[in-house]
Amino acid sequence: MTIVNIRRDVDDKFYRYRMPLLEIKIEGKGNGIKTVIPNMSDIARALSRPPTYPTKYFGCELGAQTIVDEKGDRFIVNGAHDANRLRELLDGFIDKFVLCGHCKNPETALKIKDGDIWRDCKACGKRSMVDMGHKLTTYIIKNPPPKRAKGTKGAGKSSGQTVEQGDGAGSDDELTRRIKEEAAQIPTAEQVQRDDADEDWSVDTSEAAVAARAKALEGSIANVILDDDEGDDEGPYSAFGAWILKEREAGHTPGPAEVYRKTQELGIEKKHKTLQVLFQALFTDKAPQEVETYAPLLLKLVTSDKHQKSMLGGIERLAGLEFPSLIPNGVPRLLMALYQNDILDEDVARNWGTHVSKKYVDKETCKKVRKCAAPFLEWLDQASDEDSDEDDDGDEEDGEDDGEDDGEDDEDAEEEPPVAAAAQGTATNYQEGDSDLDDL
User: Fold this and answer.
1) Are the C-beta atoms of residues 55 and 40 closer than 8 Å to each other?
2) Which domains does the chain have, with CATH numbers?
């Protein structure tokens, strides 16, 4: 599937807002000919809009009848239409009903108040009204976007998904419940210090010990299993990991620009497996603090959910094999730092934290590392509930933003949750200074 920028006028290949390229399929003959859009649900999910909205928009612009079957995932526009023409119309829909009218960011939600439709921007915080003269607005008012179910941030028809309502809504499967129960039994740092006061946790820092650990790490990197759909040779990844270890042994920790140049030299800057090797070889027991330094590099390398999953696999090997001291408190702080720097997505983190896999480490080690993510996932649940409450409160207020109350945020700010407060300082905004990656 081809992936393009949501704003196709933006040529930046690192643009974070992406969607599948619209595809069509012509069916029927004569008067019964029709154009089917097989990936409309995927496009709608990327735009956080119900798939019926862009489909109806096509019908309004083309003067054609549309057929919507959400259960069967079929979205049809009567007549034979060119793919490029539909893509241009989709750009028009995005500009009129998705992009913020102030900052042109697609991270918006539609709000209906007093018969008017507003785009509520989550990036700049402003609201802008859509063109109420368009025919689609009548359909949107009659079929408003459903509100999110609590605990399912980003899910629902408003993001192109279906939220099941009833007795099974929001329930966890057996594995999730078991992980949460076991996570509650993880001892705190104070309990560990009290129970294991007589145990020696020091690390041998002699030259022989450091060399032995580096050799073992290099061997483990070389034995990383490739995905079935990727036939690349392991040579570049082993060379990449060995280069980082050699630099560290020489007393020099490579900077973000050096690492990125090395990935370009080896031709692996776009490969998801690079993230796994990077985290295992470059980061240390101070990984939550090191994320701040390497955030520009990670933003360039992490371009899809697959990259994020490989990055989380590297964290499993980092905390489970190389630096066990990251368990239990270091892992949630590391995840928080990645999340606050927009490197890790909420949905990917949730899925990773509630499922056990032996792809990167053995099952027991995987379970131990992922259980440590429970405080971070609980914080995400609390933040999701707060967002839902804020949405409900926002519907009662005046929809138009006069731009004069921006300075009140600091006075009304609530106390940060424990995990967020622990990560404060490790997820600072690196964009305040110039990154040496800008020169690449």
Assistant:
1) yes
2) 3-159 (3.30.30.170), 175-188+205-385+419-439 (1.25.40.180)
